[in-house]
Backbone:
């Protein structure tokens, strides 16, 4: 639905979304449409404008998706695999173009675009292609107390799925969200963040090409650009399921909206992940995991290791190592691969959140061992920052920063580490660094989180066999793995005759001996021991 209106960088961006197989799509831009300004946050350069999709156009998009889904739902798993294979091939062939687009719209480094976005999407597509049918095909189950029947679960597509996603991974948030509902036979409408709308046209063209290569309508997957109003319209548009990835505050708004239509939701919300460094940890390993956990994508990760909880015996040595490594990180405009270690903060609004929380902490007595305030000049640059002496009174101890700020807390032992780790409202992921496998498992079991990485940072996401999601204010429902696929289906129960004939007990009219017979049958089925079963059988066959 999107078409950038100023001179775009690539030809591909202009041709996206205008036509689908000879059929013109409803134009996204109508006279007077609200325009989204697209800015490169690293340079301040205006990339262009993208029309916001109005609430009425959202309704039309859902109606078209509903039509397209009818054909898609009838497709075989082999056809769906071929569409996803096409998509995967396009991603591999056009990697540089995708990276360039996300670097421009988000200000991240080329390496993060490649590894955090392209690689993650490839892993997701490959997993769904290879495992989708296995988890989505009909499944035989037992027939319980009905031996003359056969039970089966059919994983039936839901219809139209809405995905409302944030800006931190412009490519991955879209393609990583689409793969599972699509494989499960649904049409998908995605609303990316208005902050990265510049990339949508390119992404829509990749989706269109893949669907049309197998003769399916491009309306099967549609990107609708816009801000909160477009998202809110999508929530009310009568879709069958909503995946929301974003802040806990907006998550609550989505749930309020979806309550009106009783639309089920998956909530992938924020985090304040703890990262426990035990006194027996390999400190070099801890250092690299911590740098990755805190500063990859400049900390704009739901699974960022925002709270380092370091045990007293290794605290000083760890602080020394991590401070030196953090101060050495290169930050600036990512002009090409290898030019920077970290990039820019994606939005001015996020910059403000980071500054407010850091300033509050500094005013209340925290010390910055690295960074601490935004860099002067053009571009949204907040440097990789380390704060120590953080107390529970500081907002930053509890609230999500979603930026390059590593908080380091000193604790005496495992018990104190766990208590501190579980002390926020969030529960997305967590890390434990220790040389002792049993200790790692013991600590992991006590953490209140949707996932735990032992001796690593948020890597659970990369293992597509694992479910991904949070607990507490970090949300509910899974994104990856078997559960993440089946989340986009109705697990329909089917009961049919086991043999070529039906056995239908007569229930009406009720006869005087029926109650005693039924009691005998219940005892026969559920009683324990031969003697009890024999008594029940006698009662059952006794003439009444
Ligand atoms: P956000 O909540 O501001 O926006 C997310 C999306 O919701 C955007 O597309 C936005 O336009 C839309 N939106 C805003 N108001 C809406 C409304 N009233 N109705 C419908 N849609 C609305 O989040 P953000 O700032 O874009 O992203 C940062 C947040 O996302 C952080 O909290 C981060 O932890 C979280 N996040 C979570 C995960 C996860 O998997 N758990 C992944 C990435 C980011």
Residues:
């Amino acid at each position: 639905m999107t078409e950038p209106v100023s001179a775009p960088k690539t030809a591909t961006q202009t041709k996206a979304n205008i036509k689908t197989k000879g059929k013109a799509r409803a134009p996204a831009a109508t006279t007077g449409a609200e325009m989204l300004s697209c800015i490169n946050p690293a340079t301040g350069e205006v990339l262009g404008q993208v029309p916001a999709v109005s609430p009425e156009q959202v309704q039309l998009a859902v109606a078209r998706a509903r039509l397209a889904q009818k054909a898609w739902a009838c497709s075989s798993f082999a056809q769906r695999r071929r569409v996803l294979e096409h998509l995967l091939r396009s991603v591999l062939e056009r990697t540089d173009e995708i990276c360039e687009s996300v670097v421009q719209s988000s200000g991240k480094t080329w390496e993060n675009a490649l590894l955090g976005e392209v690689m993650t999407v490839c892993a997701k597509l490959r997993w769904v292609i290879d495992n989708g049918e296995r988890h989505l095909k009909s499944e035989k189950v037992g027939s319980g107390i009905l031996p003359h029947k056969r039970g089966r679960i059919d994983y039936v597509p839901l219809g139209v799925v809405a995905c409302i996603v944030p800006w931190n991974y412009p490519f991955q948030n879209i393609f990583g969200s689409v793969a599972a509902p699509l494989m499960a036979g649904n049409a998908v409408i995605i609303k990316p963040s208005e902050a990265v709308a510049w990339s949508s046209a390119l992404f829509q063209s990749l989706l269109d090409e893949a669907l049309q290569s197998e003769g399916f309508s491009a309306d099967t997957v549609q990107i609708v650009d816009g801000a909160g109003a477009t998202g809110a319209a999508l929530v009310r548009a009568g879709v069958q399921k909503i995946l929301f990835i974003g802040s806990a505050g907006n998550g609550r708004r989505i749930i309020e909206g979806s309550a009106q239509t009783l639309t089920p939701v998956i909530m992938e919300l924020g985090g304040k992940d703890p990262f426990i460094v035990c006194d027996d940890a390999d400190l070099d390993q801890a250092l690299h995991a911590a740098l990755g956990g805190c500063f990859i994508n400049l900390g704009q990760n739901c699974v960022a290791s925002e709270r380092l909880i370091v045990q007293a015996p290794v605290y000083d040595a760890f602080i020394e190592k991590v401070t030196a490594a953090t101060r050495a990180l290169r930050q600036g405009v990512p002009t090409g691969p290898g030019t920077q270690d970290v990039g820019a903060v994606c939005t001015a609004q996020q910059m403000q959140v980071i500054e407010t929380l850091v300033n509050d902490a500094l005013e209340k007595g925290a010390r910055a061992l690295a960074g601490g305030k935004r860099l002067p000049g053009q571009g949204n640059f907040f440097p990789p920052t380390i704060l120590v002496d953080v107390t529970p009174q500081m907002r930053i101890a509890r609230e999500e920063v979603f930026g390059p700020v590593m908080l380091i807390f000193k604790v005496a032992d495992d018990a104190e580490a766990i208590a501190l780790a579980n002390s926020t409202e969030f529960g997305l992921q967590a890390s434990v660094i220790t040389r002792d496998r049993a200790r790692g498992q013991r600590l992991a079991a006590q953490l209140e989180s949707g996932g735990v990485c032992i001796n690593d940072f948020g890597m659970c996401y990369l293992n597509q066999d694992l479910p991904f999601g949070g607990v507490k204010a970090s949300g509910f429902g899974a994104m990856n793995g078997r559960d993440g696929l089946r989340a986009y289906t109705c697990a329909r129960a089917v009961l049919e005759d086991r043999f070529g004939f039906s056995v239908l007990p007569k229930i009406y009219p009720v006869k005087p001996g029926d109650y005693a017979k039924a009691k005998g049958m219940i005892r026969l089925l559920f009683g324990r021991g031969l003697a009890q079963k024999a008594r029940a059988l006698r009662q059952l066959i006794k003439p009444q």
Remarks:
- The mean pLDDT is 93.
- The two ends are 73 Å apart (CA to CA).
- The chain has three domains: 53-136+154-269+483-491, 274-473, 503-541.
- Residues 110-136 form the longest helix (27 residues).
